[in-house]
## 1
Amino acid sequence: EAEVANGGHQDLPPLLSFKSYNPAAAALESWVGGDPCSGAWIGVRCSRGRVVGVFLDNASLVGGVAPLLGLARLGVLAVRRNSLSGRLPPLDNSTSPRLRHLLVSHNQLTGGLRVSLPSLVTLTAEHNGFHGDLRALSIPMVRSFNVSRNMLDGEISGDLSRFPSSSFGGNLGLCGLPLPRCVHAYNALGDSVGQSPSAAMEEASSGGSNGGLSKLSVTALMATGIGNAALMVISVAISVAMFVYMRRKLRSWKGASDAALSFEEEDKVRNREEKGQKSNGGGLVCFDGGEELRLESLLKASAEVLGKGVSGSTYKAVLEDGIVVAVKRLSALQFPGRSKAFDRHMRLAGRLRHRHVVSLRGYCNSNGERLLVYDYLPNGSLQSLLHGSNGGGGGGRSLDWAARKAILFGAAQGLNYIHTFPARPALVHANVKPSNILLDEHGAACVSECGVMRYAANIQQSIPQPPRCPPGLFLDRAAAAAGGGGWHGYAAPELASGAGAAGASATQESDVYSFGMVLLEVVTADNAGDGNGGGGGGDGGEDETMGWVKIGMLCTAEAPEERPRMAQVLAMMGEFM
Ligand SMILES: Nc1ncnc2c1ncn2[C@@H]1O[C@H](COP(=O)(O)OP(=O)(O)OP(=O)(O)O)[C@@H](O)[C@H]1O
């Protein structure tokens, strides 16, 4: 059956074609002679004279997998942990009618995942460069499935939602069950299709229908003097009920979220820290997507100051070839000298790729100059939305309830990604505050500047520490944070004062605290409608507003160990999305 008219084995051409990519590979040394089913070909399994399986895990192989998938009777392809590249060809019943197990994880395969095989049982494709969405996956019988650590995005739908989040984690932008829901702040900022976020925001500020305020919102109550004792009692009762409910939820989620994050353990096997980085001369290290950056063009670029913070100044730079980036020039005072730990951290931060995290494209550390090159996000920051420019105080654009929720949910996803990124020790953001939550061209909230403040020197800020208030007075705490500027208003109480010291001792728990402060500020902000005050709290309805406030209060628990993890915060927020 295996013989063709000219005497050659039918499966020989695809196998030899694959071998041609790897002429010197030790694993394929035994692939000689005209009969791959002679029993001498290592890694080749035959049945009735035809190749039905290829097993070449950990064999240092390069080239594409397409030739192997051209084997007409192939049932199993296991080529994990090689350096295979190129696209996975579209697979369906006409190309691979017998394929049951496809194991291609830990390679460098790219392109979309287009697999429509009703009988496929195993698809493990984690740790590759697959991109696009999962719509072209039709694998109803699959029992073992993993596409984590790729560059996939879009919604997880249908049958695939039955797999755990570990099957999908670490992608550029996958969302939907079992991951958090897909939310676009873009939609929230403006309902009309095709409308730009800024146009949408303008429309809202000029009295758009979504800019209305809840008559029963917490801030509205506060603003009107809280004259109504009965309403207050009801609010407190709802608060207590929500609090108890959230605590209970929290306990039940604890186990689930632990399981959900277990995929990180796999990462121990492979350290990609040094991968995807090139030095483009002059000490500029470029990360994925920043390959075109050159230090000379950065230094020559026309620049516009975006703002100045504790850690340095940020510029919008337009490079010669028209590329626009944001360049953060770190303060020499806060970041003196060379630090190996900081360099290491930057290389790690350069690997963070998530739709709700601002991508670091390059990093330069030479002659006492430290430049961080980020994607430029054109729609400002949460700080500017809430309070106008970089500084505190009034003048912010209107922000309806849906936009507030979308921004918070997006930022929480970004922070959760950072917290669950496989790194030892685990990553900490250390500077969660509204000016580090930026809006991209679609209006999606992205967290910026992961971990930078952990390496700042112990330089005290001139901004006074706002007073801390008893836990019950969450609105005062949020207001204090809003007015305080810097990071102080958002820093957890257990951290030492002073930006550098506080950043250095920051933990994931203190990040959660800071996020909680941001959440409380956003939920109770007073700039819905006309941008000049006039009540706040959005149009979420009293129950929902109180629900968000309770999440904020859980996050800002005085004791770090009582705070939820970001995965739990996300799950709680998901109930209101
Ligand atoms: N990638 C970016 N794209 C667009 N704007 C940005 C980007 N990064 C920062 N900005 C904006 O530049 C301004 C200055 O940011 P910068 O990070 O220097 O200061 P900060 O966040 O106020 O304080 P800190 O030094 O504590 O981070 C902020 O308004 C911020 O929103």
## 2
Amino acid sequence: MISLQNVTKRYGAFKAIQSISLNIKPGEIHGIIGSSGAGKSTLLRMMNLLEKPDDGDVIINNKKINHLKGKEIRNIRQSLGMIFQGFHLVGNKTVFDNVAVSLEIAKIAKKNRTERVMESLRFVGLEAYKDKYPRQLSGGQKQRVAIARAIVNNPSVLLCDEPTSSLDPTTTMEILEVLKQINQQLNVTIIIVSHEMEVIRSLSERVTVMEDGQIYEVVEIEPTGVNKSKKGAATFVEQLKSGGDSNPS
Ligand SMILES: Nc1ncnc2c1ncn2[C@@H]1O[C@H](COP(=O)(O)OP(=O)(O)OP(=O)(O)O)[C@@H](O)[C@H]1O
């Protein structure tokens, strides 16, 4: 699965990630939480080399990938789907064509694309929306399209960077339910970055709490709901361990 060994990322003189080591277990839902600027997105983006580490290794299925280039990285990325806060859909393509893009990049023959796209759209409940354009969809529907695009290549891992941060609470819970189904029914390992305790708490089995580019603690939890949303690494750990009932402030 994914393993980071002593990875460091610098932006100029600033160390955004400071010698982090982390093993993601196959099949788990792994949350990454921390305050703004803690390094969550950078850590996630190093897992598929959207950011390259300056030091240390990114290892996928026992293979160091950080020195790979071009085509080899593209091949690895096909097994690592990714979704973002801003959906990143192509405005002048239909829902169907947005999902098909992943198959085009993977050089899947045209005749084999339709069935796979429709299967993905069915999974996220958007079969009937295949001919719509992104501007005709709600935020939650756009994220479902992005999820369909991310799973259409049958990835073993789905990287989620603040996937619900621009959605209302009800839509957030619907998207989290879709992610849970992807984990359970398609056996996809999920790594989810969020600054929202409720999101992380309701989904994750293990949570990496980050602070200042480092791991503050990795916490094992029973995924359930929580209503608190406070800041600071110590508070995150306390809420995770207490089941969200503490009020440390
Ligand atoms: N391309 C970049 N150039 C310079 N600094 C960067 C760059 N990307 C990130 N940083 C800095 O690295 C640190 C970590 O950023 P990152 O986006 O990983 O944090 P985060 O925990 O995801 O924060 P947020 O929740 O606000 O998105 C921040 O201080 C950020 O300003």
